């Protein structure tokens, strides 16, 4: 199967593979498994890797991608999607959040950066706290 034939064209002309390997796993799954699973996914032909700051596995996923690049995979042949978490939706927080993800991944760029959850949360609530609507930020 030709990976390029299994892509959709984005409005800027770039291609996004329609099938992606998700890197979410519950907290009880060791982070080292994210490293091994991501490396294996690339080995078997996944060229779209889906990650997020919320998953708390960016370091391991980035290490896996860099490992496969060291083995001869071209960076431009891996489409990496990351996500902006709901506590970072204020305009002044977007770029620092992306830069933090890039630092964690140790990559120069992500191919797609999307909003993870379309509801703003106050920054001081932590990553997943949402007790009632009064804690939601402004849109």
UniProtKB/TrEMBL annotation:
Keyword set includes Thylakoid: no
Source organism phylogeny: Eukaryota, Metazoa, Chordata, Craniata, Vertebrata
Coiled coil segments of this chain: none
Keyword terms of this UniProt record: NADP, Oxidoreductase
Gene3D superfamilies: NADP-dependent oxidoreductase domain (3.20.20.100)
Residues covered by the NADP-dependent oxidoreductase domain: 19-132
Signal peptide: none
Keyword Transferase annotated: no
InterPro entries assigned to the protein according to its UniProt record, in alphabetical order: AKR, NAD(P)_OxRdtase_dom_sf, NADP_OxRdtase_dom
Molecular function via GO: oxidoreductase activity
Source organism of the structure: Sus scrofa (Pig)
A Pfam family: Aldo_ket_red
Protein name from the UniProt record: Putative aldo-keto reductase family 1 member C2
């Amino acid at each position: 199967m030709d990976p390029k034939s299994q892509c959709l064209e984005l409005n800027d002309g770039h291609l996004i593979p329609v099938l992606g390997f998700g890197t979410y796993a519950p907290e009880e799954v060791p982070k080292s498994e994210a490293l091994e699973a991501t490396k294996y996914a690339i080995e078997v032909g996944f060229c779209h890797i889906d990650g997020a700051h919320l998953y708390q596995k960016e370091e391991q996923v980035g290490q896996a991608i860099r490992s496969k690049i060291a083995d001869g995979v071209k960076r431009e042949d891996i489409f990496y999607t990351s996500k902006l978490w709901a506590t970072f939706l204020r305009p002044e927080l977007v770029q620092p959040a992306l830069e933090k993800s890039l630092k964690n991944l140790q990559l120069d760029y992500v191919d797609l950066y999307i909003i993870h959850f379309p509801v703003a949360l106050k920054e001081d609530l932590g990553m997943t706290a949402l007790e009632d609507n009064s804690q939601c930020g402004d849109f």
